[in-house]
Design brief:
Layout: H1 5-26, H2 31-56, E1 64-68, H3 81-85, H4 95-108, E2 112-116, H5 124-133, E3 138-143, H6 150-159, E4 162-168, H7 172-179, H8 183-196, E5 202-207, H9 212-215, H10 218-226, E6 231-236, H11 251-267, E7 271-275, E8 292-295, E9 301-302, H12 319-322, H13 326-333, H14 346-349, H15 351-357
Parallel strand pairs: 1-2, 1-8, 2-3, 3-4, 4-5, 5-6, 6-7
Antiparallel strand pairs: 8-9
Helix pairs in contact: 1-2, 5-6
Amino acid sequence: MTGDPREYRDRFDAVIADVLQQALRIAVAEPALMLTGAAILHRQRKAAATRRKYEKEGVLVPPVMMISLTSRCNLACKGCYQRAQHRAPAPEMDERQLASIVVQAEELGVSVIVFAGGEPLLKKNEILALARDHPALLFAVFTNGQLIDAEAADAFAELRNIVPVLSFEGFRAETDMRRGTGVYNRLKTASELLRNRLVFSGISVTVTSRNLGAVVGRDFIGDMLGAGVKAFVFVEYVPIEPGTEDLVLTDGQRKNLNAAIAEFNRNSPALFIGFPGEEGEYGGCLAAGRGFVHVSPSGSLEACPAAPYSDTNLTTLPLKEALRSGLLERIRAEHGRLTETKGGCALWTNRDWVQGLLVKP
């Protein structure tokens, strides 16, 4: 890859378009999904052109925006990054503030909104309202799945531009060990509700040095495919909780994970995505607006959920202006140092450096 930053952005845009094309092929048997998916893909192409226009004006708009809707959760999972960060208490954005951010994001060319938490479905009604108001935006909701009942599944089936992504750790023993007794059974029930309504849904798996073999094994993948799962997101473990560094993937395990993802994409009727994935192809970490940004529950614009530092807040500043953040610009200017992924996240590995950038003029 050359030193031209436009090259990696064009490549990332192409990857997003390819993922959406794959999703369309997977959803070919369901006309409602096909119609919604075609509209989202069409908008992604227009959004990429919009982002290029703003880049010429000096505003780098990422294709993906992650929004943590709340710090609250109905579970207490071991190793949860939200709990481990010990953020200072701050009021959460209200419905009006959140809606304004999504409107601005769509106008600037953001293609995908990822809702996380805490547990985002604690704000289910807000998510449904936003999906209804923005039918050509794709909303991925990363959820522990415990609040998905028949009513929620009906709503997702009606809107179609929401993709619920349920958090599994493997089979029952692995999932319940981290997330609590009975969680696995409730996840399977939620998956069945979504499958019966032909909802395009996925799962998110935190991959550690201990569970890698199981979660990319044929038994687990086959079981999830049978449950109607259409997308698999493998998230490398980040040791935010002290004393868990042994759970981090080794270099060899990371290569094995990426190889397994590539094989599954070739041979399975589902999408397989790794995060952070092959960041070297993009010249380093895609956070800080190079590929995505993060919005905290209180509205702070951050480089990444694993780097809870900010110099701008979207409750007081328009998104277009906030994307000119000095902190984000300083991180991007030295993105080459963010290729160290011991711990699954270069920004977390270099968190002291990131925090130190806040004091620079």
